[in-house]
Specification:
Elements (H helix, E strand, L loop, with lengths): L9 E3 L2 E3 L7 H9 L9 E3 L5 H4 L2 H8 L3 E3 L4 H6 E2 L3 H7 L4 E2 L4 E2 L3 E3 L5 E6 L8 E5 L4 E3 L11 E2 L9 H14 L7 E4 L3 E4 L2 H23 L6 H13 L4 H5 L4 E2 H10 L6
Parallel strand pairs: 2-3, 3-4, 4-7, 11-13
Antiparallel strand pairs: 1-2, 5-6, 8-9, 9-10, 10-11, 12-15, 13-14
The structure holds zinc ion.
The site of zinc ion has 6 residues, from loops.
Length: 270
Amino acid sequence: MERPFWTSLYLVDRVLIDCGAPGSVEELDHFFQGLSEEQFPVACYLTHAHEDHAGTGHFLTKKYGIPVYCPLESVSLLKEGWDYKEYRKMTWGKTGVIGFDAIPYETHFETPSGFLFDTLPMPGHSPDLHAFIEKKKGWAFLGDMMQPQYQMLFGHTCEIQEDIKIIVESLKKLYKFTDGIQDLQMFVSGRGVFFGRELIRTRIQEIHDLHQKIHEANAKLEPELKPARKMKRLLKVLFGGESLIGKMTGGELSRANMIISYLKWPLEGY
Ligand SMILES: [Zn+2]
């Protein structure tokens, strides 16, 4: 997909993991034309119901009759479909998500050759997000969880409301769940493949460090400052200001959202 956002879908043993954005229908169709009958997808599993992951579900079900499986809590949203703002249309396509019937998945699923995936709930980026983990192979498909480094969050006026405290809890759960997997490969949508579960610990530590830093910076501000000035000051001190993406998205994906999420999460407890 075009800058500044990317997404990914994967074809693993005739099973699609996520299905891309509405704007990628043609690209996906082109990809399908190059597949042999033995490679052709028999099912699609969605990590979560965001437009860049579920956006071609209507096309898959209508044109190819491929059943699409989704988190239980997303069935009705996917049936209705949804529209989204202009800055997302620039990257994910103009049509919005066209509604389709998806089938809820349970705690695991199996591919035609017998790869067994656990579906592990990992809320934080979205309440419905699930990671798909094949323990024997050491594969973990994480959707939008575990970004290379958390530098911005969705929030403000956006329907996507990320929560850093819940994200870190999910990362701890993932670390525990993958215990014993030697060479864990983690597939992060639009970001690439990351290796080794130690990396999960690094992410957790980074989040805790930033948590401390943001609370410390906040404590140093004059208490009489108005909230908007406080935020401006924190952005300046911590990051040199708001990011370009933060400005482009009208504050929906921003450093300010990240600061708000960290400040909402009290320091006590560790
Ligand atoms: Zn997402």
